[in-house]
Amino acid sequence: MSRDERMELQSKRLRKVVERVYYNCEPYRDRMQKAGVTPADINTIEDIVKLPFTCKQDLRDYYPFGLLSSPMSEIVRVHASSGTTGKPIVVGYTRNDLAIWNEVGARCFTAYGLGKNDVVQVSYGYGLFTGGLGAHGAVETIGGTVVPISTGNTEKQILMLRDMGVKALCCTPSYALYLAESIEKSGIPMEEFKLRVGVFGAEPWTNEMRREIEKKLGIKAYDIYGLTEICGPGVGHECECQCGTHLHEDHFFPEIVNPETGEPVEPGQPGELVFTTLTKEGMPLIRFRTHDLTRLIYDKCECGRTSVRMEKIMGRCDDMLIIRGVNVFPSQVESVICETEEFEPHFFITVDRVNNTDTFEIQVEVKEQYYTSDINGMLKLQKSLAHKLQSVLGIQPTIRLVEPRSLKRSEGKQKRVLDKRVFKND
Ligand code: DLL
Fold first, then answer.
1. Predicted confidence (pLDDT) per residue in 143-169, tens digit
2. Which terminus, N or C, of the chain has the lesser number of Cβ atoms within 10 Å?
3. What is the Å distance from ligand 1's center to 292 Cα?
4. What is the distance in A from the centroid of ligand 1 to the CA of 201?
């Protein structure tokens, strides 16, 4: 679809969804009235900036069903995300919402080159988390064969991967690494697997991490993006060019705003991603602040798709650490570590405040062949990594080298940061 055609479609859908929330959902109506906007003010997609934002707190305040725009009798499924504190966020889907979710999911898996002759293992969690059922619906829609194994039991995961002749694996990138490590440890040669494609998302991961995973598993690793509030996996996907995540902007309209002021940024500039669902019925969201930081690329992709792409998520506004006044993203640390030959892509950041000064420590696993009892050699490694990180981050961390496979692995989203300052009052 050309941009003009798509803008026309987006405008038509925006008018419809704004009417839907205005007439069916009191909190939206109240907020729009306060902002002095009515559905009559919304004509084209460019009018979207007149509408007030929705944020995560709104979903908590109206927990569980206060933001629905359909009667409960039309809701056929709920999903929820626990978040880190407080009440979960609950989202309701109508039958049509699920059909659209399956359709956008199918677009993703088709872009990864998969089809009805392929076996796909879904190792995202099934349940309230959207990963398992989302990927599952997408694979069934393209006619592929699903192995719905969910998370856990790594030995069985490996057995299924091999014995079912699995071509594509869906899980978090951190779990993919763990699986690669476990396959290596099991001694089963990679030739016994038919694995070619990885469908990885649910947490930020860098291009350097992609190369690690691709090398270890001998696959092509693609990004899949989604979030509970909009729809799970399927909001966007990479194509064979692996140069940005195509967003399904005919269903989910993206904007980038300055995370502090909420003002739209110039096209192509980085900031916070905001989505408006253009076709959802159960719980449409208007200008939802995702907290995810990225930028949008409007040029046509070499694959031929005309949809807008987003750069890899660099982190979330709430993931950003401010250490001694310097902004640090875990993804920057990941890039440096993955690019350095001697280290495994496993690390853990601890930030604390001692005597009114921030401390910043990174534990990092050294590869087996470089982990020695030669103290000078290890000190040299430690120093060179601290130096590299200093030049990228602008602040020097304390490096603690640890044995390979000693840091905790995760089956879902990997936790890489402990900020002890959060618990201190000063
Ligand atoms: O993680 C949905 C999902 C499941 C996406 C499986 C992809 C695969 P939530 O638990 O609500 O939903 O978390 C959403 O995870 O706002 C991002 O911060 C992060 N995230 C999701 N996908 C990616 C990705 C699912 N591909 C939050 N790259 C989002 C970076 C991602 N971050």
1. 999 999 999 999 999 999 999 999 999
2. C
3. 9
4. 6
